[in-house]
Amino acid sequence: MRRVLLISVRFHDGRYHGAGDWPPAPARLFQALVAGTASGETLGGEATAALHWLEAQRAPIIVAPKSRAGRGFRNFVPNNDLDVVGGDLRRIGAIRTSKTIRPHLFDETRPFLYAWNFEPDELADSYAQAIARIAEGLYQLGRGVDMAWAWGEVIPAEEAEARFSTHGGFLCRPSSVGIGTSLSVPIKGSLESLIERYKETRTRFQMLYESKPSKKEPDRKVAAGQIFSQPRKPRFEQVAYDSPSKQSLFDLIGSNALWRIDRIVELTERVRDAAADRLIEAWPAKVACIERVLIGRNATEADKAARVRITPLPSIGHRHADHAIRRVLVEIPPNCPLRADDLEWAFSGLPVRVSEQGEVLCDLVPAANDSMLAHYGVGNARAARRWRTVTPAALPQSAARRRIVPSGLRDPAERKGASERAEGQNRAAGEVVKALRYSGIAANATEIRVQREPFGGKGERVEWFALGTRFAKERLWHVEITFTDPVPGPLILGDGRYLGLGLMERISDSWRDIIVLELAEQTRVSVDDRIPFLHAVRRALMALARRGDDTVPRLFSGHEIDGAPARSGRHEHFFIAAADFDSDGLIDRVIVAAPWRCDRSVHPRRGDSALFDSVVSSLEVVRAGRLGVITLNAAVDGADDLELAGPAQAWQSHTCYRATCPARRGDDPLDVLRRDVSAECQRRGLPQPDVEVLNRVGGADGRIAAYLLLRFGVGVAGPLLLGRDSHWGGGLFLAKR
User: Is 663 left (phi over 0), alpha (psi -120 to 50) or beta?
Assistant: First the structure.
């Protein structure tokens, strides 16, 4: 059983200032380990041997917490060119140069994981344990300000894979071929090159002397200058991480080429076994490797990342598409031990269906057109937030429905009630969340639907897919998932993902334009602190929306790119409100609405809908000064439940409405208020309401403030945020049924 040397690194702050690599490269960790265990230029014998062993291992797997780019800043430092100013330290300001620093921000409670797989033996175990002890001496990783600490473990490979699945971050696997993020990793000779670099750094400045003899000192020498020699760079190798799988598409051709969608497992097994037989016949010495990688026989949890996945693709994309299978997609991982061209040869021309007389009725040929892959999110297709199954997902036994024997179908006592059905669907939804984690998908799901019936008109019920397979029909579910962030394809979930089950299609995105964020119970703030809290939320959203050139879109800033206020006369930046739905004096939810939802005269520009949804849904923590650190649940989507979206004819104030114009002396305040509300509704593209004043609470600057009840002649969709301070939570109305 393979073993794993696992080094966990935690940063003191959730910031990483290292330039040029993310996540921190294994070479950086190797240098930090050397620096942590060295005493000057001296390394202990045990440490030297262990580090030589580590540099000879293959590149490690890396798991890093999810991050975002922080706001960059420029730091002006002296350039190493003092000769330009004649060596005058007083003129050092003339040679200052700017250095841009842009840290990565992440959750400091999530560790970085570096995992080296190795074959266990007594010597390797002793070296791995020595590296685990060396890791405890690590004190920083990255720049000098990136203080960190680490600890090491030697664990079985299966336990390491379980750690990866439950980490919650993103996983990076190395590859010897392909494309991806290039990171530096140690190789043989790296330790010696670091030692030599340390020695050369100590002697990079050397004095030059010239002979100036005198009568008293015939051998007198004086300093004539100083030379600088750059130390040689350490020896590392660039390795591609996160290289995409090689995807090969094949067409099923022949007189009997079409396959029914409910026989997808049978087709997958036929293609898989026939390709394995062809490879074994060509390379009999690789039987164990071929069976482990292609069939999954004797495969461990650690082998899943190297397994070839064969997925027959039903024809979808149009409401008249028949869902018959005409193509097969073969995905070859970058770290697969079998060569990609050998695997493509094994599938090309492969007979899938043969008659009793030996006639080939169906075989595989390389596809000439792969445009249909976009329906499954493959290739250049955009990532999507909403996905639904074409073939049902096989979930664990704990998600299985209660089976009713045929003889009990007419017995009322055996029938399933609504509560039992709901409980079963909730269990299945919980298992879908686990299946996402096992598939390496880190995005959070905001909505999960499970059912036995297909979502499309040409699909099949789950029971038909269980015939002739090892999966009980009670374990099969059709699933629809909506994520907080777009997820790329292909997306295949469940225990049958290597047999064609759990295949999902991407659904055109419907971006949310009103999002409700719930405050964690222990971090709720008082209603009296609504304004400073909303200011903090607004600053957090602007920081999340900040572009690489340090500009903030008008949608979140309310200003033009040059910093001038937007003067279009319309509400073109987002609305925000804080609500106390529990009526306990504490803010429990934040409502963020797109401007086109609150002002009907505003229309979203291209990309605004996606930008609004992605930025607002990513808000998780707000640092609000004296109010502390407030945690938000970005997965809550309760606009309909909280009577925010409507439609309704009657709307009642939740927060006080403040008039847009001040009242003049002698005017009737209530009459002024009604005219102001009518004008505000007209500007927002709403019908004229009947205004009832429930409670007048005064106002500042001559502007009247009151709680209102608005009655419209027709149903009006929300949210309704009206009045002078509507961008700051004032004038929030809730539908009154």
Answer: beta
Out of 365-379, 550-564, 575-589, 590-604, least confident range: 550-564
The token pair that represents 45 in the structure block: 């014998």
Tell me how far CA of residue 313 lies from CA of 41, 325, 389, in angstroms. 60, 6, 12
Q: Identify the pLDDT of residue 268.
A: 95
> Please, are residues 727 and 571 in contact by the beta-carbon 8 Å criterion?
yes
Structure tokens at 317: 């994309």
623-643 in b/e form (b: 16+ CB < 10 A) is ebeeeeebbbebebbbbeebb
**DSSP string of 207-242, one letter each residue:** EEEEE---SS-TT-EEEEEEEE-PPPPP-EEEEEES
Q: What residue ranges do the domains of the chain occupy? A: 3-66+107-198, 246-374, 386-404+420-507, 514-633, 648-735
What pLDDT is attached to residue 696? 83
pLDDT digits (tens, 9 = 90+) for 240-251: 887 778 889 999
Torsion of CA 69, 73, 75, 81, to 10 degrees: 70
Q: Which fold has domain 3-66+107-198?
A: Alpha-Beta Plaits (3.30.70)
User: Cα–Cα distance between 354 and 361 in angstroms, integer?
Assistant: 5
**pTM here?**
0.59
Q: Find tokens 């440490």 and name the residue.
A: 47
- Tell me the pairing of strands 325-332 and 657-658: unpaired
Closest CA to 56 of 113, 116, 121: 116
Cβ burial of 507 (10 Å; 0-12, 13-18, 19+) is middle
CA distance 378 to 64: 25
Q: How far is CA 587 from CA 204, 526, 553, 615, in A?
A: 61, 6, 28, 22
Cβ atoms 97, 79 nearer than 8 A: yes
Cα 312-317-320 angle, rounded to 5 deg: 105
Q: Is the peptide bond before 412 cis (omega within 30 degrees of 0)?
A: no
Please check whether residue 379 is in contact with residue 370, taking contact to mean a CB–CB distance below 8 angstroms.
yes
* CA terminus-to-terminus distance, the chain: 64
Return the closest-CA partner of residue 327 out of 280, 390, 259: 259
Dist CA 8 CA 164 (whole Å): 12
Rg (CA), the chain: 33
CATH of 386-404+420-507, one of 1.10.10, 3.30.450, 2.60.40, 2.40.230: 2.60.40
Chain CA centroid to CA 664, Å: 55
719 token code pair: 């949210």
Nearest to 199 by CA among 237, 236, 225, 229: 229
pLDDT tens digits, one per residue of 80-134: 666 666 666 666 666 666 666 778 888 888 899 999 999 888 899 999 999 999 9
Residue 153 in tokens? 């473990």
Report the alpha-carbon distance of residue 726 to residue 267 in Å, rounded.
Answer: 59
To which residue do tokens 């001559």 refer? 702
Q: Which of 147, 160, 159, 135 is nearest to 60 (CA)?
A: 160
Q: Measured between alpha carbons, how far is residue 468 from residues 266, 295, 393, 473, 563 in Å?
A: 8, 18, 16, 11, 66
Q: At what angle do helices 340-347 and 264-282 cross, to 10 degrees?
A: 120
* Element containing residue 542 per DSSP (H, E): helix 530-545
Which H helix or E strand runs over 331?
Answer: strand 325-332
Measuring CA to CA, which residue among 694, 656, 662 is closest to residue 675?
A: 662
User: Can you say whether the dihedral through the CA atoms of 261, 329, 59, 24 is positive or negative?
Assistant: negative
Question: Would you state the structure tokens that stand for residue 306, as one six-digit string?
Answer: 């190297």
Q: Are 34 and 51 in contact, with CB atoms under 8 Å apart?
A: yes
Q: Nearest to residue 517, comparing CAs of 534, 501, 499?
A: 534
pLDDT one-digit tens code per residue, 162-173: 888 788 777 888
Report residue 265 CA to chain centroid gap: 31
> Residue 337: which pLDDT band, with cuts at 50, 70 and 90?
confident
